[in-house]
Batch of 3 targets.
Target 1
Amino acid sequence: MGIPKVWVFAEAADGELTSATLELLTKAREIGDSVEAVYVGDDAAAVAGPAGEHGATTLYAAPTDGMLIGAVGAAALAKLVAEHSPDLVLFAQSYDGRDAIARLSAKLDRTVLTNGASIAVDGDTVTVGTAIFGGNTLVDTAFGADKPGLAAFRPKSFAAEPSGGAAAQVVAVEGIDLGRAGEAKVLEHHVEELEGPKLEDATVVVSGGRGIGAAENYEPLVEELAKALKGASGASRAIVDAGWVPYSKQVGQTGKIVKPKVYIALGISGATQHMVGMKSSDNIIAVNKDPEAPIFSVADLGVVGDVHKVVPKIIEAIKSRS
Amino acid sequence: MARTDKNPARPQFPSTSTTGAERLHEDEWSDSMNIVVCVKQIPDPAVPGELDPETKTLKREGKLILDESDSYGVEMALQLADTAGGGDVTLVSLAPNDEVSGLRTALAMGAAKAVLVSDPEFLGTDALTTSKVIAKAVERVGDVDLVLTATESTDGYTGTIPAQVGELLGWPSLTFAKEVEITDGTVKVQRQTEAGYDVVEASLPAVVSVTAGVVEPRYPSFKGIMAAKSKPVDTLAATDIGFEAGQVGWAGAGQQITKVEAAPERQAGEKIEDDGDAHERVVEFLDTLKVI
């Protein structure tokens, strides 16, 4: 017997449920006797199909009304939790997922477990597994008796598989009170043109660190190689902090977790902060001047050398083949 | 910049009037701005972390430093207060001991004072309880227009404090801001999204979390370091701000660590020295992986 009621905070991008949402629904199906989803957006009817296909029987939906998704989501959830008493609510470790879980935790006075990579159920006890210290230590943390448990999971923690269920029944959530949180208004959406695949979905990820020397080297070294391999470009925290590239490119403990087929680390020493974000890649290639760099301890192929010399030649060689 | 209710006579300007030429009349509306920056003092991240086998909490025995993530909030606060034409930047921090070395760094950057809620009972405190303590400390500072935080700490990285504090104070919270501007009682940010960014606006008082790298944190000057030594650090116990034993620490956390184990280690593979031809081996490897 599983957990009676498992809920998923569903998110969409460009009108489609995110892969992280589908992963959570799949996992919820496995551990729960019933699965329902809560969604904030104006296209609930469109996402009810895929939500149902992945196991949700109901999709509680609230419109954004120009407010923050996390703020509306938390207020809607607070109301729904009071009415339906779910046992567990799962969130994706995304910008809005994190925003929603944090707000809800304060509203319900419930603890949160974030950065989850696994979940286990033993009788009444729900345990969430996370990796700390750059992924070298695994910690299991159990929720206390208070319900619902609130947990956020890193994308790709679970596999997404359709169950073939019918479209979820859409139930509009009305009479939500956001308080002053509703004063925050979203005025504009800016979509940054992404060339190539998303960091989390790419087969190949090429990341740069301080070893690339300067902000202006990111494009010709990291982005060019990523482009040549039809991959995505990422970064270590060091160069995000230095302002060379935006936060959205950060791979690591405080950034994105990636598990591509090939991860290429250029001029990245391999701080634990970074390792936790890429260590589970299928294959790792590292280029670094320092033969003692910790990144070599996880690399399937390590090149001790100057990225400025090695990388242009790799790009050249790949281009000449196509 | 105070809330509008503090200075109703202040002329209203369009919220976009924040850049250079449009701000000729700045002195007409500028007012002091009280900002709280939440900062965390953490063990040096360069030193491998360790869990105490007894308490299952991060060992925090040695010298603690200012979490680098928080230096952006401190810098942002100093810049915003400066733009507003004055006001206090106050640090709020929690610690299980009286450690202040990290706070001194932020004070040396230019923050005016600090509130340190320090209590051995805090060991094992979860993020929500931490937020409750921070919210109480913000109320104690009083007359606060803006609370700035990082998006998450480097050592614990639960990443929920900003929105929790906002909810507990009953203020709007704008998370993952990569640009922040304050205009006449309104805060407007560029909020990071998966696709790019959103422009989000709210009235003050509000909570804003800033992503790393949004501003260049200043290095404390010698003068700043000297001045920091005599800046006030208001050190309080949890009970001083209305908490009872059992409400904080492991006892107050709705969670319990049940297991700690080493992750399976990844093995190092082939390592070659670049003699001018290393790229050939890389390309060959990529070829066998069928990505080219």
Target 2
Amino acid sequence: MKLLLLVSLISTFLFAKEILLDDLLSEYESSQSLYHKTKQESAGNLILFSRSELDRMQAYTLNDVLKTLRMFSLEATRTGMTNLTKSGSDQSSFNSVKLFINSHELNSATLGDALTQYGKMSLYFIDHIEVYQMGNSVVFGNEPGSMVIKLYTKEPSRENAASVQTSIDTRGSLTLRAIDAREFDEYSYLANFDVSKNNYKTYNAHGYNLSRDGQRGQVYAKFSKKESFDIEFGATKERYDAFSGLGDAPLHGHTDATNAYLQATRHFDDKLKFIISLSHEKLEVINRDAVAIPIADTPRPKQIDVGIGSHIISAILEKRFVHENNDLFVGAHIKHQKFDINEYKRDGINTSGSWGPTKRNIFMGYIENLYNINESNLITVGAKLDRYENVDAKSSTEHILRLGYVSLLDDRWTLKLFAMKSYVYPMFRQTTFSPYFNINPDLQSIKNRTYSAELIYKTKQNTISVSAGEGEAKNMIVFNPMLKRYVNKDGTNTFQRAYVRFEHNFDINNKITLEYFKIFQKKYVSSDQGGLIQLYNKIGKFDIYNELIYRSKYESAFGEKMAAGYDYTLGIIYPVNKKLDLKLKGENLLSKAHEVPLNGVDVPVMERRGLLTMEYTF
Amino acid sequence: MRALILLLLFTLSSLASETSLNLQVKIMEKVLNEISINKERIIWSDNKTICKSFKKSNLIQTTPDCKQATIIILQDKNNLPKECAHCIVFVLDYELLSKVPKSFGAFFWKKGRPNIVILKSRLKGLSIQASSALEPYLEEKIW
């Protein structure tokens, strides 16, 4: 903390100087940032990570960004993955976060939450990230989520280069990334390739080793014709050790995950587009335990083998009508989902069961209207109607209504108010198949309402945002340990949330962000408060980044008392010449980052490590 | 029109574009003011928006007729009139440095950042002197 304050004070004095060409270039870069074209202030409470911020943060994976998000804690899981957990709640609580690359939703139909599967995704091909919290706009389409994370890919006309980047860390992890993006006449392409071997500390629980080491590979390619079409292809393959698995005495286990998608977008003019996409997902899990794996039935097996997957076909048509003070957006979306249960073995013996619906068609229609009441006041009204047709199972119709009001009170003050009535549809592992608990095909969606107010004060150097909101959920989906399945619960759950965020720009290259948030609810089983300090400095040729993430102490659902988390990251970038950059990063340097108790050991998302990266541009 | 401003702000477009154009021109003015060409600096450009913005800032003279210009700011090689081949050229696309022999420098995007490159060999050949402020942007040859 002292170090941070010292660096902050020094930076205040160091950076008063005449405007140089380099500073003008930085200002120009900032004014031309691609987020100016994509961000939608009226779509929710926005957290933005610009290209320059992601570079200076040395955000190599999505988790490097997720761990900074207010109202959530990034946590390790029993099965070697990571999970973004809502503050105050634990990992078993329902959490629907939607993740998009451009306009494609990254589906994890089998796991329900894409973030568990894509946390280690490399960001080398990503330009900027927009995170929308509370009352997200219906224009994002797809099934609704409590938070929407939009990743936008780099723009070939801004790249015009091929680069390779390699990282090695103090645990022997190794990553190799490559990107090539160019524009030729009206065509452009972007190609990204990434492989990594990820090592973590091996823990010991009751004499058994818990490993979550893994390997990962991903490709992304985009080919576009200006104002005509985009074709995108993305694929990932990942294999990682199962850590504790579901039992307490793990002998062997791993997860193999494969995902691929192909999406084509046709722009008929700048206001009408048609998108068609295909996604495929395969997940294979092996979990072997010395004692037993806790499942719903008896006898409890010592090994389970699971092979599941999904296929999704999706078509979207969207049209925008702009007329004087009015901007009307209309969309229609058809999605076909098919789930496969290829293998389910207990102790090597094929086990059949009565699974829930494996085929589903979703028909969605949505409309949003932005209207300028006058030059300082904007009102937005959105509605979405979704019909879920389950083959051989109960179907249902859901809807979303959203109201928003944005007012520029004067040159400095902005007020944003949002109210939204929405739903969360149950997941595949709750309704259709789970190796560990009974399924419930009759589950109904959660009905929720959110209200939020945000007041923003902005000057040339400072931005202060203060926000408060309330969420309520009816017909909650909770796990019933007696029935060993998820059920709908009567009654209403409510929570309130508040945050304050302050950003100060010392100059174009030096800035600080301070943030604090708190969740208010009846019972807390994880951190209910958190904070963030980010300090970006440029001293000579060195780019220096300091980050401190705080999560409050808590008592888990099983009564374990956990200490407060302080995750301190320091990053330094040194450009050796115009082609070569050297980057050093220390993560969890205090070794006090937020932890969760898993099978008797306290585990952070990332143990303390140092990371050396070299980037060469051709 | 004023009523539209807020709508644009919260939907697709950005008000940053005007600031951005001013900055773009400011950067080029700074570069061109740091070179000496033994003639008065008079600019012509095939990008009319840039030309307009130069005219507005009034720091460097502009002309609608390239024959009267001494410096050309070029975006597209096909727009370079033959009768203006006598002028030195500052290009807005890195590739143009190799295609236009009279070009001495470029302002372009690479790896998501705006870059300035001034070619040492071309400065010499075109009898242009660059001040020390441009030292960090001098390159021996085209990459």
Target 3
Amino acid sequence: MAIISIRDLVVEYDGRRVLDGLNLDIEQGETMVLLGGSGSGKSTLLRHIIGLERPRSGAVIVKETDITRCSQSELNHVRRSIGVAFQSGALFNSLTLEDNVALNLREHTELAPSIIDLVVWMLLAAVGLSEFGKLHPRELSGGMKKRGAVARALALDPEILVFDEPSAGLDPIVAAELDELILLLKQVYPITVVVVTHELTSAFKIADRLAMLCDGAFVAVGTKDEIRNSENPHVKQFLDRIPGNVAKTTAITNFFERYLEAPEVNQ
Amino acid sequence: MATQLERVGKKALDQLDYLGSCSIQLWVTLRSMATALPFVGNRHRWKASMGEMLQIGVDALPMVALMAVSTGFILAMQGASELRRFGAVHYVIDLVAVGFTREIGPLLTAIAVSGRSGSAFAAEIGTMKVTEEIDALRVMAFDPVEFVLTPKYLAALVAVPCLSIICGVCGIIAGGIFMFFSTHLGFLLYLRYVLISIDLRDIISGLIKSVAFATIIAQVGCLEGFRVRGGPDAVGRSTTAAVVKATFLVIIADAVFTAIFYFMRKP
């Protein structure tokens, strides 16, 4: 049974179609990686999956609730079962790391402060940050911020964990550590993981299935092997890292020739 | 011609859009005000409100007091230099007392708070938007207006009238010092004349203005922050816009309130 269903999703900004009739089912307990190049629409799709934006048409059904049409209270109810680790971490700069992780527990549960402290410590220990709880986000490195964001996302024991570009801006070692963390979390918690990324190594390491986006449409959806063996030219180009529409050398040559022939240059 | 008309029309629509956004935001803030109140509301919001009160009120106190004392001296000296010609130096007491209670106290405070706190609101919320903290709040099922704006608005509603009263007292004391040195009028006698010249309506009208100014500063500052789109440069622009628009609207509101109280006072 699909925990997230995307049906005929169409998104437009100022008349420009960004997502064009997307359909996708994400099954409970699987790790789905949304793959695509820059500007392919994968971050836009993610913002619709977590209910941050409303589409022009279509539906995003999360746990049997269409979050594009539901009331604010229904949306908030669904959101409490989704944990999101944003690309930049998005930890609250005014709070310490501990307070960032504890925020959800303090505001959305009736747990005693001592229990909250214990849960926060356990979550920080799970992401390897138990010694850094008293620090503010500005005192943490990029990788630590992302792991802190994962701890915060896990606070309410979510059914769905969403990662936006988890490896972006990290060195290969820290990026690999974050991949291991995602795999570890999948073993420990019964969660569905949705990851948006363009990092191939990371994507093929953590994914159960992948969906490849190109120009606002899915060009391939399948397991790792199905994607690797895909004959779709966009998938092959992406996986083989073949340059696309790079600078046209003839156009540049013509430009410089015209520039050198101009009277101002020759005077 | 059509382009000019289009431009005028677009400007008018933008202004209406701004006014509408401000009104909706005020309505949403008022609806969530109960959450920031002590005893009945959420203790985290009340704690945040107390922190904001310290920043808006206590931290601004030396600046507002110094501005009030300087303005008190200026008003007394300028008034005395003209009134002396008619042998009416004692009217300086009325000028300073009534002027500061009804007008200068609330206006000076509003300008100081707008420069200090209005810009800080815009910068803080704008930065939160750029770093995805506002999105993080929303996906954690928090209402950003309730979480961020309401404590600031409640704090402004308490701190600005308090600062206005202190501003008025400082200005009146400065007038008393001037009168002592220029006419050897005893300070206690000066205070007696002050109490004779102002009545309860003057104090209430000043406080009503202060509440209106606090509303303008908090709402405009926060709206500018919420409307940030893009990167750090947009935060800079929103900060400037917050100060300029809040100061402009405070002066317009002051003129409107002064006219209303003037016609209410007329027999």
